[in-house]
C-alpha cells in the first residue's frame, strides 16, 4: 500500500507545474557535503570491514601463492668487431661497430637460449625428475634435498609428466601409486630393489636426507620429457642486453625454489663457457686440418720441382746468357708495345669509318668531336681530324635545319649534298690511312720474327733453367708460409680462452620477486578503500530521504517548528499518547518546545485551529497530533482533537476507544458535537473520532455544517487540533489547511522522500500558506543537531504501518561502537 502511495505522490509531483519544479530542482542541485559526511559516517564500520576484508584477501593470497625467486648473473662479452680490425675509427666506423656489436650480442643471446645450451644444461644438472613434498597448504619442491632418488627407464612415452605418489611404509620400504592407462596402480617396494612395471623400469635409492622425520611425509615426483624441460627452461629463462656499448648481458632465471634458480644460472654460465671454448677449438681444429692438407699437397709439388731442377743442373752445363736474353726480350717488348699501338690506331680508323657510314659520328648536338670519338687524338692526322670535325658540324647543322624544314626543302637537299661530298673525301682519306697502317704492321711482324729467331738461336738452357726455378721458388715460399701458420694456430689452440667475463655470478635470492608482500597488502588495502568509497558513493546517490533538520531547512520554505526524537520506550502497534506517562522525557521536552514555538507564532490569538498533515501515511501525523494535543492540554489550555482522516481513522485507536460515531455523523446531523466528544486521561484534552467512513469525505468538509461544528467547538476549547488526511494522496487536507490558523506539516526522518519537500513548497505557493510550519519527526541524534535533542527516543512506522520496536540501549563496547558509527 505504501509503495502505491509513494508512486502516486511522485507522479503527482512530476505532473505539477513545470517551471516551479525546475526551479526547485535547481535549488537542490549540487553536492551535499553534509549528507555525504553523514553517509560516510554511517558507512564507516563497513569501510573498516571492507579494508579488513581486502587485507585478509591479501593475506590469503600470500598464504596460498607460491613465491617466485629470481637469480641473475652479469656477463661481459669481449668480442673484437670487424670494423675495429679494419681500422675504421671515424663516425662511419663507430656506427658500423655499434651495429656489429649489437648483432654480435644478439647472436650470443640466441646461443644461450638455444637447445645447444639446454642440452648441455640437462646433462649437467638433474632436471629430468622433480621431487615434491606435500605441505599443510602448498607443495614444495625438494631440489637437492629429497630423501630418495629415482633411476628410470621409460618404455611408454605416456608415463612422462605423470605424477607418481610415494609414501614411506618403513625405513627401507615405500608405497608407489600412479595412474596408467586410466587406472590407478600401486605397489609396495624396497629401496634399492629394481622395479619392473608396465611401460617402465624404476630403481629407488635413499639419500643422506632420509631420516625419521622424512618418513612421515607424503611425496610425489614427476619424470619430465625433453619437450617439457625445454618449455620449462624457455619460459623461466630470460637473457637481456644490458649495455650494448659495454657488451654486457644479463642472464636471469625464475623458479619457486631459490637454490634451483641459482644453480641453473651458474650452470648456464658454465655450459656457455664450455660451448664457446668448444666452438673456438673446433674452428681452430678445422683451420689446422685445412692448413695441414694444403701443406701436404704443397710439399709434393715442391719435391717435384726440386727433382726437375736437380736433373736439369746435373744433365746440362749452364752459362750466363742473361744479358742477351734480357736485351732481346726488351726489344720484343718494345715491338709488341708499338704493334699494339698500331693495332689500336687501325681499330680506331675502322670505328670512325663505321660511324661515318652510319651517320652516328656524334651522339648529341652539344658534344665535341673528342667527346663523341674518344681517342681521336691518337690518329695524329690533322687533315682527317679537320674533315671529321667539319662533317660533325654539317650533320649538327642538318639536324637543326630539319627541325624547321622538310627533307624536300632546297636548303636541306643542299646541306645533304655537301655532307655526301665530304663523306666521300673522308672515306678516301680513311682508306689511305688504313693502308698505311697495314704496311707498318707488316714491317713490325717481320721485325718481331727476326727477334724471335735470334732468341731461338740462343742456348735454351737458361730459359729452361728459369722455367724450372719459377715453380720451385713459388712452392718453397708457400711451404714456409704454411709452416708459420700451423705454428701460430697450434699456439692459439693451446691458449684458447672464452671471450667473456662473469662480472656478477648468480647468488641465491633472499626475497621473492612475486608476490611482493608490500605490494599485495597495498593492493588489498587500496581495494578495501576503493570498495568502501564505492559503498559510500552508492549509499549517497541512493540516499533520497530526509535525514536532518538542515536538509529540511534547505529544501523547503516552511519554518521548521521543531524536532521530535526517536521513541523506543515501548512497542506500539498504533500511535499512542505518551507525554502524560513521561512528562520529563526527551520527547515530551521536544513537543513542549514545539508548543512554545506555536505560542510565539499565534500569540495574538486566544482561540487557535491547528491542522496536522503529511505527504503520505507512515510519517507520524497522528502520533504528533495526539501528543502535541496532550502537551498543550497539560499547560492548562482546553484542547480538542478532530480526526478528519475519515478514510483511515486512527485517533480513536491512539486513545483505545471505538469509532462508532464522530465527525462524519456530526456533519450529516446524525449526532451532535456533545454526543461525539470523548474524554482522555488528561482532563483538558478531548477528542472526536472520524466516525464511520463516508463515501464523500471531501464534500462533507465543504459542507457549511463543518464551519458550524468548528464555531461550536471554539465556544468550549482554546485549541482545535485536526488530524487531516495526507495531502500527497487526497485533497481533503488542503481544504482543512485553508481554514487552519497554523498548518503543520510532518516530515519523518529517514522515511520521507526528499521529493516530498518540493510538494510542501508547491502547496505553500499555490495556496499562499505563509504560516505553514514543518516538524521533523523520528529524528536520531544527527537529525536533531542544532535543536538540542540528541536523545535516542522516538517512535516507529506510524500511519497505517504500525510501529517498530527499538531495543533499549545496551551497555558495552559493541553498543558504544554501534552508537558511534550510526
Automatic annotation (TrEMBL):
Membrane spanning stretches: 44-62, 518-542
Protein name (database record): non-specific protein-tyrosine kinase
Coiled coil: 288-315, 384-450
Listed GO MF terms: ATP binding; identical protein binding; non-membrane spanning protein tyrosine kinase activity
Enzyme Commission code: 2.7.10.2
Record bears the keyword Transmembrane helix: yes
Keywords: ATP-binding, Coiled coil, Kinase, Membrane, Nucleotide-binding, Transferase, Transmembrane, Transmembrane helix, Tyrosine-protein kinase
Amino acid at each position: 500500500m505504501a509503495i502505491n502511495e509513494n508512486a502516486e505522490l511522485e507522479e503527482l509531483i512530476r505532473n505539477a507545474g513545470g517551471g516551479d519544479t525546475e526551479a526547485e530542482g535547481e535549488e537542490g542541485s549540487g553536492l551535499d557535503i553534509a549528507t555525504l559526511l553523514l553517509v560516510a559516517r554511517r558507512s564507516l564500520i563497513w569501510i573498516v570491514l571492507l579494508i579488513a576484508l581486502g587485507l585478509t584477501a591479501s593475506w590469503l593470497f600470500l598464504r596460498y601463492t607460491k613465491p617466485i625467486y629470481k637469480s641473475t648473473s652479469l656477463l661481459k662479452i669481449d668480442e673484437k668487431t670487424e670494423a675495429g680490425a679494419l681500422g675504421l675509427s671515424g663516425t662511419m666506423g663507430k656506427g658500423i661497430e655499434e651495429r656489429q656489436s649489437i648483432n654480435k650480442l644478439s647472436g650470443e643471446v640466441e646461443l644461450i637460449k638455444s637447445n645447444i645450451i639446454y642440452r648441455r644444461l640437462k646433462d649437467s644438472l638433474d632436471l629430468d625428475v622433480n621431487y615434491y613434498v606435500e605441505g599443510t597448504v602448498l607443495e614444495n619442491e625438494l631440489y637437492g634435498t629429497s630423501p630418495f632418488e629415482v633411476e628410470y627407464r621409460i618404455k611408454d612415452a605416456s608415463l612422462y609428466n605423470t605424477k607418481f605418489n610415494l609414501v614411506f611404509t618403513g625405513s627401507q620400504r615405500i608405497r608407489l601409486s600412479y595412474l596408467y592407462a586410466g587406472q590407478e596402480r600401486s605397489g609396495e617396494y624396497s629401496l634399492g630393489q629394481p622395479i619392473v612395471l608396465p611401460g617402465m623400469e624404476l630403481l629407488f635409492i635413499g639419500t643422506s636426507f632420509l631420516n625419521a622425520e622424512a618418513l612421515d611425509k607424503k611425496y610425489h615426483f614427476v619424470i619430465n620429457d625433453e619437450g617439457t624441460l625445454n618449455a620449462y627452461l624457455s619460459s623461466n629463462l630470460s637473457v637481456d642486453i644490458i649495455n650494448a656499448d659495454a657488451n654486457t648481458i644479463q642472464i636471469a632465471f625464475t623458479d619457486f625454489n631459490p637454490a634451483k634458480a641459482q644453480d641453473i644460472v651458474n650452470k648456464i654460465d658454465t655450459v656457455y663457457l664450455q660451448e664457446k671454448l668448444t666452438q673456438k677449438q673446433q674452428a681452430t681444429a678445422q683451420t689446422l686440418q685445412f692448413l695441414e692438407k694444403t701443406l701436404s699437397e704443397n710439399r709434393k709439388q715442391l719435391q717435384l720441382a726440386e727433382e726437375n731442377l736437380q736433373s736439369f743442373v746435373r744433365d746440362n752445363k749452364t752459362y750466363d746468357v742473361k744479358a742477351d736474353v734480357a736485351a732481346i726480350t726488351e726489344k720484343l717488348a718494345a715491338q709488341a708495345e708499338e704493334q699494339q699501338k698500331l693495332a689500336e690506331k687501325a681499330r680506331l680508323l675502322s670505328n670512325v669509318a663505321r660511324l661515318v657510314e652510319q651517320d652516328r659520328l656524334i651522339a648529341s648536338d652539344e658534344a665535341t668531336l673528342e667527346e663523341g670519338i674518344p681517342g681521336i687524338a691518337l690518329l695524329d692526322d690533322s687533315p682527317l681530324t679537320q674533315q671529321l670535325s667539319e662533317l660533325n658540324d654539317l650533320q649538327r647543322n642538318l639536324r637543326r635545319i630539319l627541325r624547321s624544314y622538310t627533307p624536300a626543302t632546297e636548303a636541306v637537299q643542299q646541306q645533304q649534298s655537301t655532307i655526301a661530298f665530304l663523306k666521300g673525301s673522308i672515306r678516301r682519306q680513311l682508306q689511305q690511312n688504313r693502308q698505311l697502317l697495314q704496311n707498318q704492321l707488316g714491317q713490325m711482324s717481320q721485325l718481331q720474327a727476326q727477334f724471335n729467331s735470334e732468341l731461338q738461336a740462343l742456348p735454351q738452357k737458361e730459359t729452361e733453367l728459369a722455367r724450372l726455378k719459377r715453380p720451385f721458388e713459388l712452392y718453397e715460399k708457400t711451404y714456409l708460409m704454411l709452416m708459420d701458420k700451423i705454428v701460430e694456430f697450434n699456439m692459439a689452440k693451446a691458449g684458447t680462452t672464452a671471450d667473456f667475463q662473469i662480472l656478477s655470478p648468480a647468488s641465491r635470492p633472499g626475497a621473492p620477486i612475486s608476490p611482493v608482500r608490500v605490494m599485495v597488502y597495498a593492493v588489498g588495502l587500496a581495494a578495501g578503500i576503493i570498495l568502501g568509497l564505492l559503498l559510500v558513493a552508492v549509499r549517497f546517490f541512493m540516499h533520497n530521504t530526509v535525514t536532518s533538520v538542515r536538509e529540511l531547512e534547505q529544501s523547503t520554505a516552511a519554518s521548521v517548528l521543531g524536532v521530535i526524537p526517536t521513541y523506543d520506550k515501548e512497542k506500539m502497534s498504533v500511535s499512542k499518547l505518551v507525554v502524560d506517562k513521561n512528562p520529563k522525557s526527551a520527547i515530551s521536552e521536544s513537543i513542549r518546545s514545539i508548543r512554545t514555538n506555536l505560542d510565539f507564532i499565534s500569540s495574538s490569538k486566544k482561540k487557535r485551529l491547528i491542522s496536522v498533515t503529511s505527504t503520505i501515511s507512515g510519517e507520524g501525523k497522528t502520533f504528533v497530533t495526539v501528543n502535541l494535543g496532550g502537551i498543550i492540554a497539560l499547560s492548562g489550555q482546553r484542547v480538542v482533537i478532530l480526526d478528519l482522516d475519515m478514510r483511515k481513522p486512527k485517533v480513536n485507536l491512539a486513545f483505545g476507544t471505538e469509532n462508532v460515531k464522530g465527525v462524519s455523523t456530526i456533519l450529516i446531523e446524525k449526532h451532535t458535537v456533545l454526543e461525539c466528544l470523548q474524554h482522555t486521561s488528561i482532563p483538558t484534552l478531548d477528542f472526536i473520532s472520524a466516525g464511520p467512513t463516508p463515501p464523500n469525505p471531501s464534500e462533507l468538509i465543504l459542507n457549511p455544517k463543518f464551519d458550524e461544528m468548528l464555531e461550536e467547538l471554539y465556544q468550549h476549547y482554546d485549541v482545535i487540533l485536526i488530524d487531516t488526511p495526507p495531502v500527497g494522496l487526497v485533497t481533503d487536507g488542503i481544504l482543512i489547511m485553508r481554514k487552519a490558523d497554523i498548518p503543520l506539516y510532518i516530515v519523518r526522518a529517514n522515511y520521507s522522500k526528499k521529493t516530498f519537500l518540493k510538494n510542501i513548497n508547491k502547496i505553500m505557493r499555490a495556496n499562499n500558506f505563509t504560516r505553514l510550519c514543518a516538524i521533523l519527526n523520528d529524528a536520531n541524534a544527527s537529525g536533531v543537531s542544532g535543536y538540542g535533542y540528541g536523545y535516542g527516543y522516538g517512535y516507529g512506522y506510524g500511519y497505517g504501518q504500525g510501529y517498530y520496536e527499538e531495543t533499549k540501549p545496551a551497555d558495552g563496547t559493541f553498543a558504544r561502537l554501534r552508537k558511534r558509527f550510526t
